[in-house]
Design brief:
Blueprint: E1 31-38, H1 45-64, E2 72-79, H2 84-96, E3 101-103, H3 108-120, E4 124-127, H4 134-137, E5 144-146, H5 151-165, E6 170-175, H6 179-195, E7 199-205, H7 214-223, E8 227-231, H8 234-246, E9 252-255, H9 262-268, E10 276-280, H10 287-300, H11 308-325, H12 330-339, E11 342-344, E12 347-351, E13 357-358, E14 362-368, E15 371-374
Parallel strand pairs: 1-2, 1-3, 3-4, 4-5, 6-7, 6-8, 8-9, 9-10
Antiparallel strand pairs: 10-14, 11-12, 12-13, 14-15
Helix pairs in contact: 1-11, 2-3, 5-6, 8-9, 11-12
């Protein structure tokens, strides 16, 4: 009889162990190939490399305990630099290599570009971080799942915080024009306007990678905004908050999980102090999160970076589905993901028909003394 793969609680055992059936296989190849796609170099590598580490740790653990039905996991790691035009090549390469499932991609734009290629090949994709709502809600990508909540939920959390906690009434909403950043900003604008409690005094996009953001900061200053709500990633955010400090713009800075990364603090320095950013809820008290964190410290000598727990959870969810289904057939995996709950570092989760994880959410964090603190 097949036995469901699970990660035992550290309340029961001092270390986490996988239990996997070793009988009856529906797999044709010698190994189960799991792709790991995301930015592993460039400015956004700090978002992608934690997922690589998570995949390595989970795969090593599963393989050491007999694999999945006797099949060892083989990781195929590919760098997409978070660029859509590169992500299509990455997806094509992985499909050509016979990938069975994919952990990734990381950025929403890159994910959106790659998904049709995987869908045509019948390959399941699960992202720890791609939050654009349309990736699940459009119905265009039936092969896509994620272990993070979408941007409409994230924007609502940030707007509620701005209105109910900070009491703001004039907010400038800016974004980086990308699928992720602009999508977040549009939802933020919508929720602010629907609240009837705050004015969106500026809504504008900026050019990613620009050397200087003094022009947009001047516009924010002239608008009389009490806060900047930014949709995008840490490279632009760090430059914007630095320019705000330089221009003596006394306004709160509120952003998304594309900014909630230690690299933002490292690059922005003192200008990052007091900034707010939403991110996945802190699951530090979850026993499996503690196991995953300690594994990273033991193996890599440091705390993990952004989306590590979500990536670790995605690996567990996919492996559990493969084990339960006895195959890597997309339809069978989808059925398992929607019907089988699995214990993960982000909670006991399953997935709805659209592919969103049920049981995950966002919190708002503030930079205090050089670290993000959950509010």
């Amino acid at each position: 009889m097949k036995r469901k793969l699970r990660l035992q609680s550290i309340a029961v055992a001092a270390t986490a162990l996988f239990t996997v059936g070793i009988v009856g296989t529906g797999f044709a190849a010698d190994t189960i190939k799991i792709g790991v796609a995301g930015p592993h170099s460039g400015d956004l590598a700090s978002y992608g490399l934690p997922s690589v580490n998570a995949a390595k740790l989970v795969a090593e653990k599963v393989n050491a305990n007999g694999g999945i039905d006797g099949k060892q996991i083989e990781l195929l790691i590919e760098d997409d630099v978070c660029k859509p035009e590169v992500a299509t090549n990455t997806a094509t390469k992985l499909v050509s290599s016979g990938v069975d499932v994919v952990l990734g991609h990381i950025c929403s734009g890159a994910t959106k570009a790659a998904l049709p290629i995987y869908n045509n090949a019948g390959v399941l994709v699960m992202s720890p971080s791609a939050t654009n709502p349309g990736l699940t809600k459009s119905g265009d990508y039936p092969n896509f799942f994620r272990t993070i909540a979408p941007d409409d939920a994230q924007a609502q959390v940030d707007v509620d915080f701005a209105l109910n906690v900070l009491g703001l009434t004039k907010i400038a909403v800016i974004h980086d024009k990308g699928d992720y950043g602009k999508g977040f900003a549009e939802f933020a604008k919508k929720y602010l306007e629907e609240s009837g409690r705050a004015d969106v005094v500026l809504f504008e996009g900026v050019t990613p990678g620009a050397v200087d953001y003094s022009a947009i900061v001047q516009k924010v200053k002239r608008s009389g905004a009490e806060a900047v709500m930014f949709g995008g990633y840490h490279p632009e955010a760090s430059k914007i908050v630095s320019m705000m400090k330089k221009k003596r713009l006394d306004a709160a800075f509120i952003s998304d999980d594309g900014v909630k990364d230690q690299t933002f603090i490292k690059v922005a320095g003192e200008a990052a102090e007091g900034a707010y950013a939403s991110g996945p809820k802190d699951t530090a008290d979850n026993p499996l999160a503690k196991v995953a964190l300690q594994e990273h410290k033991d193996e890599f000598g440091a705390d993990p970076g952004a989306f590590y727990q979500n990536a670790y959870s995605a690996m567990l969810a996919m492996i559990n589905a493969i084990d339960a289904a006895g195959t890597t057939d997309l339809a069978a995996l989808k059925k398992a993901l929607q019907e089988e709950k699995v214990d993960t570092p982000v909670g006991n989760i399953y997935f709805n028909e659209q592919g969103d994880a049920v049981g995950v959410g966002f919190s708002v964090y503030q930079v205090q003394n050089g670290v993000f603190v959950e509010m």
